[in-house]
C-alpha cells in the first residue's frame, strides 16, 4: 500500500514537472527576424532588397543568355520535319482497302 502511494506520488510530481516545462514558451524565429501576428512584417533592409535584385538579375541574365546562345535546348538539336511529307505506311495507317469499312 505504501509502495503504491509512493509510486503514484512520484508519477504525479513527474507529470507536474513536465507540465511546468511545457508552460515555458520556446523562443521562435530566434535569429530570423521579428515575429509578428496579424500585422504586416517589418520591411526588409535596403541591403537585402538590393542583394535580391542583383541575384534575380543574374539569374535572368543566365537564362536569357543561354536561350540566345544555345537555342537547341529549347527547339531541339535536329531540324524540324514537316509531318505532311510522311506516308501512311510510315505513320502506321493501314491502306483503305483493308478493314471493316470496304467500299
UniProtKB/TrEMBL annotation:
Q: Which UniProt keywords apply?
A: Electron transport, Membrane, Mitochondrion, Mitochondrion inner membrane, Respiratory chain, Transit peptide, Transport
Cite the PANTHER family for this sequence.
NADH DEHYDROGENASE [UBIQUINONE] 1 BETA SUBCOMPLEX SUBUNIT 2, MITOCHONDRIAL, NADH-UBIQUINONE OXIDOREDUCTASE AGGG SUBUNIT
Topology in the lipid bilayer is annotated as: Peripheral membrane protein
Write out the annotated subcellular location: Mitochondrion inner membrane
Q: How does it assemble?
A: Complex I is composed of 45 different subunits.
Q: What biological function has been recorded for the protein in this entry? A: Accessory subunit of the mitochondrial membrane respiratory chain NADH dehydrogenase (Complex I), that is believed not to be involved in catalysis. Complex I functions in the transfer of electrons from NADH to the respiratory chain. The immediate electron acceptor for the enzyme is believed to be ubiquinone.
What is this protein called in UniProt?
Answer: NADH dehydrogenase [ubiquinone] 1 beta subcomplex subunit 2, mitochondrial-like
- What does the sequence similarity comment in the record state about its family? Belongs to the complex I NDUFB2 subunit family.
Give the InterPro entries listed for this entry. Answer: NDUFB2_animal
Q: Name one GO biological process term.
A: mitochondrial respiratory chain complex I assembly
The record's GO CC annotations read: mitochondrial inner membrane; respiratory chain complex I
Q: Spell out the Pfam families in the cross-references.
A: NADH_B2 (PF14813)
